Amino acid sequence: MSCEVSWFSALCDDDYEFLGAPDPLLQSSFAHCRNIALTAEAAGYDNLLLPSGYGLGIDSVAFAAAIAPLLRRMRLLLAVRVGEMWPPQLARQLATIDQMLGGRLTVNIISSEMPGETLASGPRYRRTVEVMQILNRLLSGEPVDHQGEAYRLKLDPPRIARTVARRPPLYFGGLSEDAREAAAEACDVYLMWPDTMAAVGEIVRDLTARAASRGRKLRFGYRVHVVVRETEREARAAAERLLSRLDAETGEAIRNRSLDATSVGVRRQSELRENAAQDGYVEDNLWTGIGRARSGCGAAIVGDPDQVLAKLEAYRALGIEAFILSGYPHAAEADLFARHVLPRLDHGPLFV
To answer: Residue 276: what are its φ and ψ, rounded to 5°?
Structure first.
């Protein structure tokens, strides 16, 4: 079975040559992120994550609508912060972009708060489940009669939702108990951040069982950075070069500025760094140094083409069917991975 291989368009001011050292030429803009997207499509990637952050970068929904007419083959994985959005309006936006893409839209659900709002984990994830349930019906062209804790809606779907053969699948991640329950209840693809092989296997088993208890089946995705070079020595040197201009105070400030800086998933990324060897590797070819300069996804697969391919294949053996990859600078690393590894992977869209 093939796997889906996605790249990452740095909409959230997250592109560097040296981590923690902003470069005006790599700052998020339509032109820069368009270049990453077109590079990824030309290189043969199956999908492209368009991330979303409240305080950083440019808007993911607006960017998706702008880039969609420029793409001929590649899918978009559009991240939406659902706490900030009214579900019927979001459904209409997603249906419109999906039509522009000819049915190639996929959606990354982020269980966000409203900017300035503090909502406990339980109510926030219950609200997110309601949003996913509402979107699943509206984007399937079905009427909604939803009487929930957060939303009370009775309405027909937007007409445009009926013009695409299938609804966009929902990708969703989160490591907390509330997040795992939400995933088992309503998403199609459960996404996880980097972790040890043993931990990845445990998460797949746990979420599989939770979904099965509801009569559902999940698919699994893995978000990780990559640093691939012709030799392992060159790859490790390239990884260390990324951190060569980073000081501890700058790294801490970058990690703390994210609205999810205290989440269970972010804490787990910190634990991986703390448990890593002195060189930053927590297990073979999994380097946690990259997390010193970013919140969230904080580790990279580092190695030569054979090592990187073997690591990805090991994840696939655990049940991972979708990879969301990134590297620094994003366009350059997308090209390196596409030349060295991508042709050797049996890959294609997760949903056809």
So the answer is: -75, 160
Q: What is the CATH number of the domain that holds 214?
A: 3.20.20.30
Q: Is residue 330 within 8 Å of 28, Cβ to Cβ?
A: no
Classified as helix, coil or strand, 2 is coil
158-165 contact pairs (CB < 8 A, 24+): 158/88, 158/91, 158/92, 158/95, 160/92, 160/95, 160/96, 160/99, 161/91, 161/92, 161/95, 163/95, 163/99, 164/95, 164/98, 164/99, 164/102, 164/103, 165/103
Whether 350 is in a domain gets the answer no
Provide the number of structural domains found in the chain: 1
Q: Which domain holds residue 228?
A: 4-344
Whether 181 and 125 have beta carbons less than 8 Å apart is answered as yes
| H helix or E strand, kind and range, residue 33 | helix 30-43
CA gyration radius for the chain?
A: 19
* pLDDT tens digits along 295-310: 788 899 999 999 999 9
Quick check: is 151 in a domain? yes
154 domain-assigned: yes
- Report angle CA 248, 249, 251 to the nearest 5 degrees: 65
pLDDT of 258: 55
Spatial separation of the C-alpha atoms in residues 342 and 47, rounded to whole Å: 13
Minimal CA–CA distance to 194: which of 108, 112, 265? Answer: 265
Q: Judge whether 349 lies within some domain.
A: no
Each residue of 260-283: pLDDT tens digit? 556 788 888 888 888 888 899 999
Output DSSP code: residue 347: B
Picking from 342, 341, 330, the residue whose alpha carbon sits closest to that of residue 39 is: 330
pTM for the full predicted model:
0.95
